[in-house]
Amino acid sequence: MTATTSELDPRWQAAVTEFNAGHYHEAHELWESLWDDADGEAKVLCRALLTIAAGYAKLDVGEVNGARKLLERGLASLQQGGPGGAALGALPASVAEGLSRLRQVPFGERAGLDSVPRPRL
To answer: Of 58, 13, 57, which is closest to residue 31 (Cα–Cα)?
Structure first.
C-alpha cells in the first residue's frame, strides 16, 4: 500500500473522519487495520497516526502519563517518516504544541487537560 492508495482506501477516510470528530479510539482501530495491510512508508505513517490517536484517547480518559508517552512516540514516528507525512499539514506542529501543554500538567493531575488542543487532519 502506498500513500496514494491509502488515501483511496475507505478505511483511511473513515479514520480521518473519526479523528476529526474526536473519536480517537475508533480512528486508532481503523488506522491499525490499515497498518496491518501496509508496507514501507505507508506502514510508518499508519503506525504514527494510530499511536497519536491512542494518545488522545488516553488523554480523554485522563491518563496523562500514557497520553504523553503515546503522543511523544507518535510524533517521533511522524518526524522520521517519509514524504507521506507531508500530507498531514499542521498535525505534527499541533501534536507538538499539545505535548508542550501536556508536559506542564503535574503528574496525576487532570486539571488543565482541557487546555491541550485536539488537532484535526
So the answer is: 13
